[in-house]
Specification:
This protein is mainly α. The chain folds into 2 domains: 48 residues; 90 residues, no CATH class. Helix content is 67%, strand content 0%. The protein has 6 helices and no strands. It is elongated, with a radius of gyration of 32 Å. The N and C termini lie far apart (101 Å). The N terminus is likely disordered.
């Protein structure tokens, strides 16, 4: 196959590369034509620059059989999207909350208070272990969700006691 284009001018190509992020292609073409370059020369320079910037079109570039994408470098940001992280956090939060509070509550409600207490303590320890294991892992949303569930479980009684204590102080004051 023969290429019938004019050879591109390297100076024009460099100028186009340097300015294409700031100006539209039409504005760049107009400026080059006003500067005295011919339309064929401008077209050849743009064609060369566009070919360099175009993504590869061969089948291997898009994951043909036997080709795997390159692994990210160590320390590179995670490829997990924000929506996946949020989903993981909510899922872990609800599962941890249900496991640490829900199951023991149901056991206690059914008349097995001692078993409910034991299951609740075991679930709390499992939640702490899960939180530690998920920290720095490939799915950080899981650690976030379990951590928030543990905080809620630990701080809720404290907030309730402080609130009741404050209420009692206010009601007990003599005018």
């Amino acid at each position: 196959m023969t290429d019938h284009r004019l050879p591109a001018n390297p100076d024009l190509e460099a100028w186009i590369r340097a300015n294409r992020a700031q100006f539209t292609e039409d504005a760049l073409r107009r400026r080059l034509l006003e500067a005295g370059y011919g339309p064929a020369e401008v077209d050849a320079a743009f064609a060369t620059v566009e070919e360099e910037a175009a993504p590869p079109t061969d089948a291997t570039a898009f994951g043909a059989a036997g080709v795997t994408p390159a692994q990210p470098a160590a320390g590179a940001p995670s490829q997990v999207g924000t929506s996946n992280r949020t989903r993981d956090a909510w899922l872990a939060f609800l599962v941890a909350l249900g496991g640490i509070l829900g199951v023991p509550f149901l056991l206690a409600f059914a008349g097995f208070a001692t078993a409910g207490l034991a299951v609740g303590l075991a679930a709390a320890v499992a939640g702490l272990v899960a939180y530690a294991n998920f920290q720095g892992g490939p799915r950080p949303g899981l650690a976030t969700g379990v951590g928030y569930a543990l905080l809620l479980i630990l701080l809720s009684p404290v907030i309730a006691v402080v609130g009741l204590f404050g209420f009692c102080l206010v009601q007990g004051r003599v005018n």
